[in-house]
Design brief:
Belongs to the acyltransferase 3 family. The chain is mainly α. The chain is 72% helix and 0% strand. It has 14 helices and no strands.
Length: 357
């Protein structure tokens, strides 16, 4: 019997495989593999297709936290886990962080303040903002649901308003260049927060989308979401062209079409059935997607440094991309193996203690 409503779904292995693909798209944003081979395609691939990846991750977070969002202990545990990840990975990226953001013309105190600003308000390094944004988005949703007791309609309305505000402080900011009050406000905002692609204007709307899908799962029917994704993706390509050609080059993080593309992409993947025999592979892909996301820029940094020290060319972007994702996958698999082995050892020790009792 095929699934008709989302609430009937018992497994989400297709989402795990989709996350794995999304991690490669995130890497392609930072290391565009087709830049020299096909510049026009590379631009569309990097600035449109790959931009589905991070919102997709946020929607998954909102969906799987949806039924737990009122559980204070579970939300607290999740947030502390993400915070620990953020601190840990920021420490691992410390040398790249200093290399990128420490400026000789600034005083030591000024540089420390800049690093602190980035750590707390922007994101310590290129892709690590996602962890900071996840904490802010989930915490905000939790407070609206539990502390302020907003209903679903109110939360969705807030998410829409925040996203539109973010869009006009990000991709569409040049629309307001001649509107001085708005232009001045946007300029001030960006001078402090650098981008609207953060937990409130970007993360929260997509986490809310996932939360909405969870609480309304019994009303969401199976449909041609894959075709809808393609349709809205084409519109997003058109939107990107209009922005670039008519409005002015800006950030490509937030489009008006992004929520429609992401919503249909998530639902398309959520309804795809994947058998139990693929369960172990799906779990590995899910874990590996996180490792690739977090590792790839660290691998890229040291790859460039090593090649520079050896006096060798790092290669074109396709070569760089292939090297980085390959090494990231290998390191990720090693980390997953170590983590699973440690978990088995801990479970074994617990069982021994229980038997003795």
């Amino acid at each position: 019997m095929s699934t008709i409503y989302l609430s009937e779904k018992k497994e989400y292995r297709a989402l795990d495989f989709s996350k794995f693909v999304a991690a490669f798209l995130v890497a392609a944003i930072h290391i565009p593999p087709f830049e020299e081979i096909a510049p026009v395609f590379s631009h569309e691939f990097q600035q449109v297709i790959c931009r589905m990846a991070v919102p997709f991750f946020f929607v998954c977070t909102g969906y799987f936290l949806g039924e737990k969002i009122t559980d204070k202990d579970r939300v607290k545990k999740y947030l502390f886990h993400i915070i620990k990840m953020y601190v840990w990975w920021s420490l691992l990226y410390l040398i790249p962080i200093i290399d990128r953001f420490w400026e000789k013309k600034r005083s030591a105190a000024g540089n420390i303040l800049e690093l602190a600003r980035r750590f707390f308000l922007i994101g310590s390094y290129i892709q690590l903002w996602y962890l900071l944004a996840t904490v802010a988005a989930v915490l905000f949703l939790y407070l609206l649901v539990t502390r302020f007791r907003w209903n679903v309609k109110g939360i969705v309305a807030a998410a829409v308003l925040l996203y539109l505000t973010g869009v006009f402080h990000n991709t569409y900011r040049h629309v307001f260049d001649t509107v001085l009050p708005a232009a001045n406000e946007i300029q001030w905002y960006l001078s402090v927060f650098a981008t609207a692609r953060n937990g409130f204007f970007f993360g929260f709307p997509f986490v809310t989308m996932g939360y909405l899908f969870r609480v309304k799962a019994d009303r969401i029917r199976k449909s041609a979401y894959g075709w809808y994704t393609v349709f809205f993706l084409v519109l997003m390509m058109l939107e990107e062209w209009i922005i670039t050609q008519k409005i002015g080059e800006s950030s490509h993080d937030m489009y008006l079409m992004t929520p429609l593309v992401t919503a249909n992409l998530f639902l398309a993947a959520a309804f795809v059935p994947v058998g139990e025999r693929m369960g172990a592979a799906a779990k590995t892909m899910r874990e590996l997607s996180t490792e690739i996301f977090l590792l790839h820029m660290l691998v890229y940094f040291w790859y460039k440094k090593i090649m520079e020290c050896m006096g060798l060319d790092a290669g074109n972007h396709l070569v760089r991309y292939m090297v980085v994702v390959t090494v990231s996958v290998l390191i990720g698999l090693i980390l997953i193996y170590i983590r699973r082995k440690r978990s088995k050892q801990e479970n074994y020790k617990k069982n021994i203690k229980q038997q003795k009792l």
